[in-house]
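I am sending you the entry underneath: sequence plus fold tokens. Let me know what the token row says about the fold:
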Amino acid sequence: MHTSAVLPEDILARTDWTALEHACAGMTDVPKTPQILASLLSDDARVQADALGDLFGVVHHQDTIYSATPAAVEFVAAVLDHPRTGTLVRPVFGSSAPAQPLRASLLDWLTSVMTAAAESDRWGPSGGEAEVAACRAARPRAYRAASAQLADPDPTVVSAAIGTVACLLDAPDLQHHRPQVAIRLHGHALSASDRRTRIMAVLTLSAWGFDTLRMLREDSDLVVRAAAALSPAHATDPKGTRALLDLVASPADAAWCQQVFPYFGRIFPFKLLPAVIARADLDELVTALAVMLADPPNGTCAGGWGPQLRARVFPDGKPAEGMATAAQRTLQDLFSEQCFGPTARPIIFATDVRAAFSDLVPHRHERAADQEPRVPHLSRAGRRVGPAAPPAPGSRIRAS
């Protein structure tokens, strides 16, 4: 039963859609925003999947907030508990991913919009000033709608809802809700059967500075322990550092952490590696990195941990001939063999961690002389932010 205090049909009826635009304004082959939103509640699952693609690819194209986006936020928040959002559809990104309730993808969309609104000041405008302000003003309503989904029976919905709530409660005017939500997250962290849900709960508790000691000390899952170790309260706890080192040296667990977590992004290169580089004993760190670099998970070279590792291992710059320490020599050899060999991919982006070591290894794989590394516009989790060109005709995301 749909219990939202705001009826979605009322939102569609009262909004002046003629004054609002999405990324494809003026393109006659692209549906208008109200058509996209209404189609989310269609009786046809394929129509719903197409509408979801348009929601991401047109109404919020490449993380941009358009004039139609705030009204879409209000609509999506109002339909989260609608029976039709329980329809199973494939996620927009990752065609090989299993189908999940549309509700989970709508929560992910809300997280993306609200993250863009929150980060607009930091990473450059993600939309017009009025549009960004309107999305921020919608946070309380979005929080009420998203927090209700923490009790959903489907774990994919719960993990998505945790991401949305974590995002929204980073807003200063909503942080007073954190203690109440933390009680529920402790329950998910300790007893949920779904690993992703547990990790999302622990990541949120760690980010908020709430107690994760029991998960760190007692949990049998290495990834849960490592996520619990991210809490600033455990920055000097040997058990936390041990969990992070063990994760880096566990290829299967490290690869699992490369998935994109709602709001937190890919936690292996953007959170776990920076934490272990900052905390671990240098010799133990290099030993763990040797295991990881022998078969690094896809995407490991993203993030800002390259300069951080260089500063940690080579605080005085490149050592003079014959003056390198054992740890420095080991790391030089590791990067030379594993990251700059003849089969290594060239460095394309300046954010590639290997760029920080290109002058420290003796046999690096040179890129073409006229190919300078590009600097992508990335947020803390590796997602692109900021205004972008609208999608080309025919490039809209479609259900497979």
Summary: Confidence is low (pLDDT under 50) at residues 364-380, 382-388. The radius of gyration is 23 Å. Strands lie at 88-89, 100-101.
